[in-house]
Amino acid sequence: MTPLDRTATACAGSKPMARRRKLALGSVWSVQLALLCTVVAPAVTAEASPGLDAIACVTIDESTCPALRIALQQPAITTAELAAWLDHAPADPDRVRKAASVLSIIGGDVARAHLVAAAKRFGDDVSFAVDLHAAAARLGALWSRDALLMMARGGDVRVRVVALSTLSALSEPGSVELARSAIAAEEPRLAAVAAQILGKSPDARDGDTLLEVVSRDGVALQLRRAALLALAARGDKRVALVACQLVSHPSPSLANAALTALAAAPQPWATPAIAWALEVDDLVVAASDAAVTDADRRLGDVALRRLADKTLPMAHFNALLKVVVTIKPTDGARTLLEQTENADEAHRVAVLKATAELGDHAVVPRLVESLVSARGRVANFTVHALEVLTGQRLGGEVAVWRAWLSGGSQPSPPSSP
């Protein structure tokens, strides 16, 4: 430990300890220490604030909050700092929730104890206490789990949502019964959480409830979507009929949920609905997933035709490629190569990867000749496709591949450096 470290440690000590040092070491050392503390202590305080910096972030996420990454690297300091802050925290719901999240990520007995203590402090205001109890329960606090069971039964909607979703995540047996009551709630957000929980229940009666919700007119969009996804999670094939009808719903979020349900419970008579959705930009990704499980050849043709659109976003392009690779429409590889001959690098690389998977040996001569002008990643993935399709490892020299195609003597490929 350096002299500066020892000084900082002494400065951070309690007042009784400072008094004992004064008696032991004499007044001269005490005066020197006091002077040094005025310089060192502010620096130590400024640096030791990972927890408070983290809860100042917009979201508690390492990808968007560098302070959180630092805080998690110093779990003991962060836990102590946030615990001290919670002991005197202002009525700031956003930062209290974030502090609870950080402590739950750090975990451990100490963090759990501080979360429970803070929940007791805010006990009269459940809007604060629920997030603290939720974090503590995730760390194993049984008392907090019991508190959440009480909170989930009635009162503020947000409190019930947090309590119910936490209990479900912890596989609390009582959460299913609470969800059965909450699915009839007037507040769509609470009913939607209840639907998600019933989607995990093995009880057939809960599947019946969800199907009734999905099929009923006038149901709130949020609840209907959640019920569709819950039925998809259950793999309930009965949802396919109503899902086909909802694919053309004006709300893309509901239509996409319907396609997710069709992907989970494929039916042969659903093909026309999926084919229609493949043509709609807002639905193409979910429709592609449904097309893969449906596997009707007509869907491969639709996807192949759509891939000719040079304005397709990469996510849509890749989704449609997955359909083509799975269904393998006639002349799919040749068509893809022709359609993307003048496309940008990202689209051409994606097609070359798909070409390797399609397994069509008829495109090998075309790939060989394309090596003449191919550069960079396009050249690398052209060679990759050739190697996969032919089983040959001949490198990137056009002459070598041409010789192999002609069946004549093959020039030796360049050796690896």
Features:
417 residues, mainly alpha, 71% helix, 0% strand, disordered N terminus, disordered C terminus
Task: Describe the structure in your own words.
- The chain is mainly alpha-helical.
- Helix content is 71%, strand content 0%.
- The N terminus and C terminus are likely disordered.
- The relative contact order is 0.03.
- It is built from 26 helices and no strands.
Largest beta sheet, briefly?
none
Helicity, in percent? over 70%
| Count of extended strands | 0
Note the gap between the termini. Answer: 50 Å
Average of pLDDT: 86
What is the string of helix and strand elements?
HHHHHHHHHHHHHHHHHHHHHHHHHH
Rg, Å, rounded: 31 Å
Shape: flat
Uncertain residue ranges: 1-47, 409-417
Total helical elements:
26
Which class of secondary structure composition applies to the elements? mainly alpha
How much strand? under 5%
